[in-house]
């Protein structure tokens, strides 16, 4: 299991070598990179993701790993950050949420073709581990990393260890219930946090405003090509950056639920720091400041505990492959 305390020592003594290959597999792209022990990315490769074809996904990952291995022959381990529920064996895709690979023993499928040990990790866990090892939460032994994009994912580090749970399904923070019988979620339940705090939820907020208050939402509609049915989180964010009152109200709705959800998680986890990552984090203070206010207002015993910093991620787009590579090096 990944452990902050033994990470550097273990790598120094590990006969598999300091260089590791990390692969970040998403619905639209597969990115691979060679990563050093200090988290430095020495080379990268990107390929389009054939998300609808299981064998094509495996073939593309193998192609990426082989090409990187040819250029850096001392690489000895491979870490794959994969979307979906990863079983506790860190090999099997127990449930592929967006890709066609449920039930696939992905680590075995890759390892037998590249001749290297392979570890598979949930993509949010990999991203979060990179933030704790090398990014905004570096040096913290208890951290919560929240990735906000199309959905809401996360990674939890407790006492220097990545929390995976009994079946490998821990840290699915987007599916804590915040609104009983609320908006339907793709997981099959209703009222999940990601239905109110993800980028897609921001678009829904904008659409609801346009439907019932079209004059108030005029700027958002304009930035959506004049069609209220095409409103996206990006259009709302663009309007919010201009100071549009309707767009800022859409953000206020989102940050209210995000802040409350984070406060609920802190009542259980008591982290030293919360790191906000993902596409929506690019909104910066438009997202961060109202989220911080909602979080502090609903945090259990908030007036009697040390402040919990709420900060933006520092790892950038390569954090997923960096974290996967580092986890494989230790695995």
TrEMBL record:
Pfam families: ROK. It comes from the Bacteria. The keyword Nucleotide-binding applies. It is an enzyme of class 2 (transferase). InterPro entries: ATPase_NBD (IPR043129), ROK (IPR000600), ROK_cs (IPR049874), ROK_glcA (IPR004654). GO terms for biological process: glycolytic process. Belongs to the ROK (NagC/XylR) family. NCBIfam families: ROK_glcA_fam. This is Glucokinase.
């Amino acid at each position: 299991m990944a452990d902050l305390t033994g990470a550097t020592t273990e790598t120094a003594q590990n006969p598999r070598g300091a260089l590791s290959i990390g692969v970040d597999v998403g619905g639209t792209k597969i990115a691979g990179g060679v990563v050093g022990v200090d988290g430095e990315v020495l080379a990268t490769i990107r390929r389009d993701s054939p998300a609808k074809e299981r064998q094509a996904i495996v073939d593309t990952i193998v192609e990426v790993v082989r090409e990187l291995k040819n250029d850096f022959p001392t690489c000895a381990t491979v870490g794959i950050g994969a979307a979906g529920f990863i079983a506790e064996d860190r090999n099997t895709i127990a449930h592929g949420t967006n890709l066609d690979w449920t039930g696939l023993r992905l680590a075995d499928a890759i390892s037998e073709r590249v001749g290297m040990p392979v570890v598979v990790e949930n993509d949010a866990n990999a991203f979060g581990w990179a933030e704790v090892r090398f990014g905004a939460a570096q040096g913290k032994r208890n951290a919560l990393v929240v990735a906000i994009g199309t959905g809401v994912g996360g990674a939890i580090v407790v006492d220097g260890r990545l929390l995976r749970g009994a079946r490998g399904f821990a840290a699915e923070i987007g599916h804590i219930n915040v609104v009983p019988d609320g908006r339907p979620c793709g997981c099959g339940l209703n009222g999940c946090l990601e239905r109110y705090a993800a980028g897609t939820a921001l678009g829904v907020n904008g659409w609801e405003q346009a439907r019932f208050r079209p004059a108030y939402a005029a700027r958002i509609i304009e930035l959506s090509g004049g069609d209220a049915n095409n409103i996206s989180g990006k259009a709302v964010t663009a309007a919010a950056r201009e100071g549009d009152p309707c767009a800022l109200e859409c953000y206020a709705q989102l940050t209210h639920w995000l802040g409350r959800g984070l406060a609920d998680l802190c009542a259980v986890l008591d982290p030293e720091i919360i790191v906000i990552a993902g596409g929506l984090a690019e909104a910066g203070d438009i997202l961060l400041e109202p989220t911080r206010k909602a979080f502090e207002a609903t945090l259990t015993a908030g007036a009697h505990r040390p402040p919990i910093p709420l900060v933006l991620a520092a790892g950038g787009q390569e954090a997923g492959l960096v974290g996967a590579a580092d986890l494989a090096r230790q695995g």
